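During the second year of the project, the team shifted from modelling isolated chains to modelling whole assemblies. The rationale, set out in the original proposal, was that interfaces cannot be judged from single-chain predictions alone. As a representative example for this report, we include one of the complexes processed in the last quarter. Its constituent sequences, exactly as entered into the pipeline, are reproduced here:
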Amino acid sequence: MLKIKNLKVRTEGDVSILNGLDLAVGPGEVHAIMGPNGSGKSTLASVVAGDPKYIITEGDINFLNEDIKELEPEERAALGLFLSFQYPIEIPGISLNNFIKTSLNQKQKALGLKPFSAKEILEEIKKNAEILKIDLDFIKRFVNVGFSGGEKKRAEIFQMLMLQPKLSILDETDSGLDIDALKIVANGVNSLRNNENSFIIITHYQRLLDYIKPDYVHVLSEGRIIKSGGPEIAKMLEENGYDWIK
Amino acid sequence: MTGLSKKTLASFNLKNESGFLSDFFPTVKNEDWKYTNLKKHIPESIIAQPFENIIDEALTKKLEKKINNIIDNKNVIFFIDGVFQKKYSNIPDGVKINKLFVEDCGLRTIYMNQAGVEFSCTDEKSYGGFLNFTNNTKLIELNSYLSNYPYVIKFDDSCVKDSRIKVVHSFTNKEAFFNQNRVLFLVEKNASVLVHEEVLNFGKENSVFNMVSEIICLENSSLEYFSTQNDSSKSNLINSIFCTQQKNSTSNFNIFSNDGKLIRNNIQVDLLGENSSSNVRGTSLSRSSQHLDNFITISHMVENCKSNQLFKSVYDDNASGAFCGKIFVEKGAQQTEAYQQNNNLMISKNSSVNAKPQLEIFADDVVCSHGCTIGAIDDDILFYLQSRGIKKEEAIKVLIAAFLNDQISNIRNDEIKAEISNLFLKNQ
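Output from the structure prediction step:
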């Protein structure tokens, strides 16, 4: 599904962040990416989603057998890519409800499909709000404005469920969540999980992985994946820290 | 300038040797016109409108279909070239309209005094004028010289609250005319009225509309005023509103500017009676090389009055603009509450705006504030929207809608809200 080869990325200020990263995610797989602060985890997420702030100097990103390196973020989203932001953006003046409607129908348009009816959208909203234990009044509020840390993350996962992406990248979605919220969010992710939908979960903690069982765990350091393996790696990291790998 | 009477004036233009018309043009040396160079926008060949009180019947016949498409004939006061059209109007209960004969009275800048008494030639003393009305007078004088007889529209307390009364000023310029228009609104004691003014150009492009409205709000009255400025005919609009308010009166001005080559709004509100209040809101979307200048003064002349100015403007392409907003608090006008906010969203690199918020306070027990922002769309916000599948162009539209949201969602009249939403959010 996603194939990243020898990816090298720098910022506009010419700081290199990713230094030849390789990663392959197959259909239905869940990959966890861990690593110390500043190792390039969020950059990887942003680059795959198409953030123009970063400059790709070398390497390839293939998604569903298509080279997406030159695609606009919205084109990647239309292909089925989703990024749950580490710091979701506040947009005063537009309700979460309208925002999701616009996203959904823009995606439909890009795929050459007809827009969803208000009724269809409402039904989906109700279904997903139920999964994430979201009050419908919450959806009428402006996007992320005045949301608590936990509400922001829940709103991200809500958008994910509405958009039904094929590959979701969750950038530290667990940070700032209490245990109950963590379970709810994990439940939301698991509801989207099947043989086809894949996930990349960026996290600092083993805890989330208790609820969303990964197939693979990778350790990122200085812009490269330095270790890959099964869920046991996360446990070792939790116990021994990153020094254990080096 | 005395010695001139309307009758002696014929058609003339800016190139006229006497320099008559250009004498009336404020230049950028005038502080109040620093950011709007009229001579740059108004063609030299402009012809000042000759006085005609007779409307070309053949022409109105031709326009009939267009007019009927535009007006729904529900509470409409319709003018063509400054002349009231009974045929196209439907005047609701509580509203009276009459012509003010000022032919031999010489030049007056203002035709109604604070008490709502119309100027009369036989009783010169009844003419009061506006207290702070000292600057900005040249174009008003020109308007007085050249306009047809002004009309007085009176609203009494039998007007239905929140029911819209549309006032449509249409023009049929055969050439690029410098049109004048003058209306006096009198909101009588205890009256509550919603007025929606609009300018329609059926004629040539490049015309100028020099619109002057005098508004008197008497005790306990309430005025909800809307102006939609949506002229796509490449015309220039200079819209001057002078409003005085008596005790316990309320005014809400809502100016929506969506299209027009040049728009200058002069809005001056004098709060003369205690416990009066005024809200002035402006919302605009300027594109191509349009220019928009909002020039606002609210004067607190007595104690216990409130005012609020909120102007939100979006500039795209090569559009330019200015906001000059002033809060004036007279000596002794204690317990004043006055706020002013101006936010500008710049979409393109070539757009520009000058903002000049001003406070002039001569009382010591007041709450006043002003704030101003000028900013571009944040790249991180744009990426967030795009990552959700929203195309860049669409994302910009969404963010413009979000920026203007409060101005539009605060409109209480659903009909107007739908029209404005359509104008600002759908047809971008």
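The interface with chain A takes residues 379-381, 383-392, 394-395, 398-399, 401-406 of chain B (CB under 8 Å). The mean pLDDT of chain B is 85.
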